[in-house]
Write a structure and sequence with these properties.
By secondary structure, the protein is of the alpha+beta class. Helix content is 44%, strand content 18%.
Length: 187
Protein backbone atom coordinates (compact mmCIF):
# COMPACT_ATOMS: atom_id res chain seq x y z
CA UNK A 1 0.00 0.00 0.00
CA UNK A 2 1.34 3.40 -0.94
CA UNK A 3 2.12 5.72 1.93
CA UNK A 4 2.38 9.48 2.05
CA UNK A 5 3.85 11.67 4.73
CA UNK A 6 1.96 13.95 7.12
CA UNK A 7 1.52 16.71 4.52
CA UNK A 8 -1.22 14.66 2.86
CA UNK A 9 -2.10 13.87 -0.70
CA UNK A 10 -3.26 16.43 -3.25
CA UNK A 11 -3.44 16.21 -7.06
CA UNK A 12 -0.98 19.11 -7.41
CA UNK A 13 1.47 17.41 -5.11
CA UNK A 14 1.15 14.18 -7.07
CA UNK A 15 1.84 15.99 -10.37
CA UNK A 16 4.92 17.64 -8.84
CA UNK A 17 6.08 14.22 -7.63
CA UNK A 18 5.63 12.79 -11.17
CA UNK A 19 7.78 15.62 -12.58
CA UNK A 20 10.44 15.10 -9.92
CA UNK A 21 10.49 11.31 -10.36
CA UNK A 22 11.01 11.69 -14.12
CA UNK A 23 13.72 14.32 -13.52
CA UNK A 24 15.54 12.03 -11.07
CA UNK A 25 15.46 9.18 -13.59
CA UNK A 26 16.69 11.44 -16.39
CA UNK A 27 19.56 12.72 -14.20
CA UNK A 28 20.57 9.08 -13.75
CA UNK A 29 20.54 8.54 -17.52
CA UNK A 30 17.28 6.57 -17.48
CA UNK A 31 14.37 6.96 -19.86
CA UNK A 32 11.40 5.87 -17.77
CA UNK A 33 7.94 4.84 -18.92
CA UNK A 34 4.94 5.41 -16.65
CA UNK A 35 3.09 2.10 -16.30
CA UNK A 36 0.71 2.35 -13.35
CA UNK A 37 -2.80 3.61 -12.81
CA UNK A 38 -1.82 7.20 -13.60
CA UNK A 39 -0.63 6.18 -17.07
CA UNK A 40 -4.24 5.35 -17.95
CA UNK A 41 -4.70 9.10 -18.40
CA UNK A 42 -2.86 8.84 -21.73
CA UNK A 43 -5.70 6.69 -23.12
CA UNK A 44 -8.69 7.23 -20.81
CA UNK A 45 -9.31 8.73 -17.40
CA UNK A 46 -6.72 7.73 -14.81
CA UNK A 47 -7.89 5.89 -11.74
CA UNK A 48 -7.34 6.91 -8.16
CA UNK A 49 -3.86 5.90 -7.07
CA UNK A 50 -1.40 7.26 -4.57
CA UNK A 51 1.85 6.06 -6.05
CA UNK A 52 3.89 6.45 -9.21
CA UNK A 53 4.95 3.34 -11.13
CA UNK A 54 7.83 3.70 -13.58
CA UNK A 55 9.66 1.16 -15.72
CA UNK A 56 13.20 1.65 -16.99
CA UNK A 57 16.04 -0.46 -18.35
CA UNK A 58 19.11 -0.46 -16.12
CA UNK A 59 21.55 -3.09 -14.89
CA UNK A 60 21.27 -4.12 -11.23
CA UNK A 61 24.78 -2.80 -10.58
CA UNK A 62 23.58 0.76 -11.31
CA UNK A 63 21.18 0.74 -8.35
CA UNK A 64 23.70 2.40 -6.02
CA UNK A 65 24.13 5.27 -8.49
CA UNK A 66 20.35 5.63 -8.78
CA UNK A 67 20.00 5.62 -4.98
CA UNK A 68 22.62 8.39 -4.76
CA UNK A 69 20.74 10.39 -7.38
CA UNK A 70 17.46 10.03 -5.46
CA UNK A 71 19.08 11.29 -2.26
CA UNK A 72 20.94 14.13 -4.03
CA UNK A 73 17.61 15.25 -5.51
CA UNK A 74 15.96 15.44 -2.09
CA UNK A 75 14.18 12.09 -2.30
CA UNK A 76 14.02 9.48 0.43
CA UNK A 77 14.76 5.79 -0.04
CA UNK A 78 12.41 3.15 1.37
CA UNK A 79 14.88 1.04 3.32
CA UNK A 80 12.25 -1.59 4.18
CA UNK A 81 11.56 -2.28 0.50
CA UNK A 82 15.23 -2.06 -0.43
CA UNK A 83 16.62 -5.26 1.08
CA UNK A 84 18.95 -6.17 -1.78
CA UNK A 85 16.08 -5.95 -4.28
CA UNK A 86 17.32 -5.83 -7.87
CA UNK A 87 14.00 -5.64 -9.75
CA UNK A 88 12.57 -2.55 -8.07
CA UNK A 89 13.70 0.53 -6.21
CA UNK A 90 11.11 2.24 -4.00
CA UNK A 91 11.65 5.83 -3.03
CA UNK A 92 9.66 8.91 -2.08
CA UNK A 93 9.64 12.40 -3.55
CA UNK A 94 7.79 15.07 -1.60
CA UNK A 95 6.29 12.19 0.39
CA UNK A 96 4.79 10.37 -2.62
CA UNK A 97 5.80 6.74 -3.23
CA UNK A 98 7.63 5.96 -6.48
CA UNK A 99 8.24 2.38 -7.59
CA UNK A 100 10.99 2.24 -10.22
CA UNK A 101 10.87 -1.20 -11.79
CA UNK A 102 13.77 -2.62 -13.74
CA UNK A 103 12.97 -4.11 -17.14
CA UNK A 104 14.44 -7.52 -16.41
CA UNK A 105 12.48 -9.68 -18.84
CA UNK A 106 11.95 -9.54 -22.62
CA UNK A 107 8.30 -8.38 -22.45
CA UNK A 108 9.28 -5.43 -20.29
CA UNK A 109 12.11 -4.52 -22.64
CA UNK A 110 9.68 -4.71 -25.59
CA UNK A 111 7.25 -2.44 -23.74
CA UNK A 112 10.04 0.13 -23.29
CA UNK A 113 11.10 -0.11 -26.92
CA UNK A 114 7.57 0.50 -28.23
CA UNK A 115 6.60 3.14 -25.64
CA UNK A 116 5.11 6.36 -26.96
CA UNK A 117 5.22 9.93 -25.80
CA UNK A 118 1.64 11.03 -25.13
CA UNK A 119 -0.17 13.67 -23.18
CA UNK A 120 -0.66 12.23 -19.72
CA UNK A 121 -1.62 14.23 -16.64
CA UNK A 122 -1.17 17.42 -18.66
CA UNK A 123 2.46 16.57 -19.54
CA UNK A 124 4.22 14.84 -22.40
CA UNK A 125 5.24 11.53 -20.81
CA UNK A 126 6.39 8.17 -22.12
CA UNK A 127 3.72 5.51 -21.65
CA UNK A 128 3.28 2.00 -23.07
CA UNK A 129 1.80 1.58 -26.54
CA UNK A 130 -1.85 0.54 -26.20
CA UNK A 131 -1.32 -3.16 -26.97
CA UNK A 132 1.65 -3.38 -24.60
CA UNK A 133 -0.26 -1.58 -21.87
CA UNK A 134 -3.18 -3.99 -22.15
CA UNK A 135 -0.81 -6.99 -22.15
CA UNK A 136 1.02 -5.60 -19.11
CA UNK A 137 -2.28 -5.30 -17.26
CA UNK A 138 -3.30 -8.84 -18.27
CA UNK A 139 0.06 -10.24 -17.20
CA UNK A 140 -0.23 -8.61 -13.79
CA UNK A 141 -3.67 -10.19 -13.49
CA UNK A 142 -4.89 -8.46 -10.33
CA UNK A 143 -8.58 -7.48 -10.39
CA UNK A 144 -7.77 -3.77 -10.61
CA UNK A 145 -5.38 -4.44 -13.50
CA UNK A 146 -8.00 -6.45 -15.38
CA UNK A 147 -10.37 -3.53 -14.78
CA UNK A 148 -7.70 -1.20 -16.18
CA UNK A 149 -7.42 -3.41 -19.28
CA UNK A 150 -11.20 -3.26 -19.70
CA UNK A 151 -11.16 0.53 -19.40
CA UNK A 152 -8.33 0.80 -21.92
CA UNK A 153 -10.18 -1.38 -24.42
CA UNK A 154 -13.54 0.38 -23.96
CA UNK A 155 -11.99 3.83 -24.44
CA UNK A 156 -9.89 2.75 -27.44
CA UNK A 157 -12.15 0.18 -29.08
CA UNK A 158 -12.00 1.87 -32.49
CA UNK A 159 -8.21 2.24 -32.59
CA UNK A 160 -7.23 -1.04 -30.87
CA UNK A 161 -5.53 -3.48 -33.24
CA UNK A 162 -7.59 -6.62 -32.63
CA UNK A 163 -5.31 -8.89 -34.65
CA UNK A 164 -2.20 -7.73 -32.79
CA UNK A 165 -3.98 -8.02 -29.42
CA UNK A 166 -5.03 -11.60 -30.19
CA UNK A 167 -1.52 -12.51 -31.38
CA UNK A 168 0.06 -11.10 -28.21
CA UNK A 169 -2.48 -12.93 -26.03
CA UNK A 170 -1.53 -16.21 -27.72
CA UNK A 171 2.21 -15.51 -27.54
CA UNK A 172 2.07 -14.64 -23.84
CA UNK A 173 -0.43 -17.39 -22.92
CA UNK A 174 -2.98 -14.93 -21.51
CA UNK A 175 -6.13 -16.50 -22.95
CA UNK A 176 -8.04 -16.76 -19.66
CA UNK A 177 -7.35 -13.14 -18.69
CA UNK A 178 -8.10 -11.93 -22.23
CA UNK A 179 -11.41 -13.79 -22.30
CA UNK A 180 -12.53 -11.98 -19.14
CA UNK A 181 -11.64 -8.61 -20.66
CA UNK A 182 -12.91 -9.32 -24.18
CA UNK A 183 -16.22 -10.77 -22.98
CA UNK A 184 -16.80 -7.83 -20.63
CA UNK A 185 -16.15 -5.34 -23.43
CA UNK A 186 -17.79 -7.44 -26.16
CA UNK A 187 -14.78 -6.73 -28.39
Amino acid sequence: MAQTDAEGFTPERLLNAVRQAFEICQRCGLTPVMIGGMALDAYTASRATMDIDLLADFPPESLDRIRECVIASGGRLDDAADQGETRMLRFYVIGIQVDLLRAWEPEMKMLLKRAEERQCLGMALRVPALVDFIMHKLRTGRPRDLDDAIRLLVANRQSADRELLEAEVQRLHLTDEWNVVRDTVDF
